[in-house]
Design a protein that fits this description.
With 276 residues, the chain is of the alpha/beta class. The protein has a domain of 192 residues: Metal-dependent hydrolases (TIM Barrel, Alpha-Beta Barrel). The chain is built from eight helices and ten strands. Strands 1-2-3-6 form a four-stranded parallel β-sheet. The longest helix has 18 residues. The two termini are 12 Å apart. The mean pLDDT is 96. The structure holds zinc ion (2 copies). One zinc ion binds next to loops.
């Protein structure tokens, strides 16, 4: 385990979108863990209005996080954020958030919404019906959307760069993340995104939720991020206060093993580096 004490998580979801605990319960847990700050990243609304989004709770969410900022000011720094999706462009108010995350969760194929983190069954069905049985084409659609993301979204850091690998341990037959074509499309997307974005997250969400033993992104992408001087944050994409710091120690060790000696955290002065 790492000897570095992690004191911030900027990727958290609550009962205001698709999380299990209230914002206040998350704040209490963060204080109990000794965090000096926490950021809330409620799922931004999209053109699809999926159930996981803030939806009509958008303004109650903003009000509640702002209330907590004041109520807990003596104990912890709270940031109001949102996790944007490629299809959130134009769906969210501007100038109210302290930070935002740019993520891809969906593509659209033949007029149908295709999700990359819904379930193995959904992925299998989409591959069979919409991608001619080719898992690699399903993956290609994801990375093409990711590559185009910077044109549509301006945010502070990139979320789960390869969330499509969520089921790689449970359902490795979906597509081969080790093959040359897969790696090529992933790195082409990284090249495109890196032109605009400097900060990326290492997301331990799949560890907390038991999907796979390692965070996003995969090791070969981490190596390329290192080569391209990307700056990394560690988050847990937490939908349950139990997992607020799940996998953080492992993530630090992983980053050290891949040659990183710094991670970043958000402050009033923007992102600052922390030696690891
Ligand atoms: Zn996400
Ligand atoms: Zn998330």
């Amino acid at each position: 385990m790492s000897d570095i004490k992690m004191t911030q998580n900027l990727h958290t979801h609550t009962t205001m979108c698709d999380g299990r605990d209230t914002p206040e319960q998350m704040v209490e847990r963060a204080i109990a863990l000794g965090f000096d700050s926490i950021g809330f990243s409620g799922h931004a609304n999209t053109v699809f209005r999926e159930a996981c989004e803030l939806g009509d709770r958008l303004y109650p969410y903003i009000d509640e996080i702002n209330r907590l900022k004041g109520a807990y000011a003596e104990k912890i720094k709270i940031f109001l954020g949102t996790e944007l999706d490629y299809y959130s462009a134009g769906c969210m108010p501007e100038g109210v958030f302290d930070y935002s995350i740019a993520s891809v969760h969906y593509t659209v194929r033949e007029g149908e919404l295709v999700s990359y983190d819904l379930s193995v069954e959904h992925s299998k069905d989409a591959i069979a019906r919409l991608f001619g049985g080719s898992g690699l084409e399903y993956a290609r659609a994801y990375f093409e959307t990711m590559a185009d993301m910077p044109r549509r979204l301006s945010a502070d850091f990139v979320g789960h760069f390869d969330i499509l690998t969520k089921y790689e341990a449970k359902a490795p037959e979906l597509f081969d993340t080790g093959c040359h074509q897969y790696r090529k499309m992933a790195l082409e997307a990284l090249t495109a995104v890196r032109e605009k974005y400097e900060f990326f997250e290492v997301n331990t969400g799949p560890i907390g939720r038991g999907y796979k033993p390692a965070p996003y992104p995969q090791p070969f992408i981490l190596d390329e991020m290192k080569a391209r001087k990307c700056k990394l944050l560690i988050t847990s994409d937490c939908h349950n206060s139990k997992f607020l710091d799940r996998g953080f120690g492992e993530a630090v060790e992983l980053l050290r093993a891949h040659g990183f000696d710094e991670i970043y955290k958000l402050t009033d002065r923007g992102f600052v580096g922390m030696k690891i």
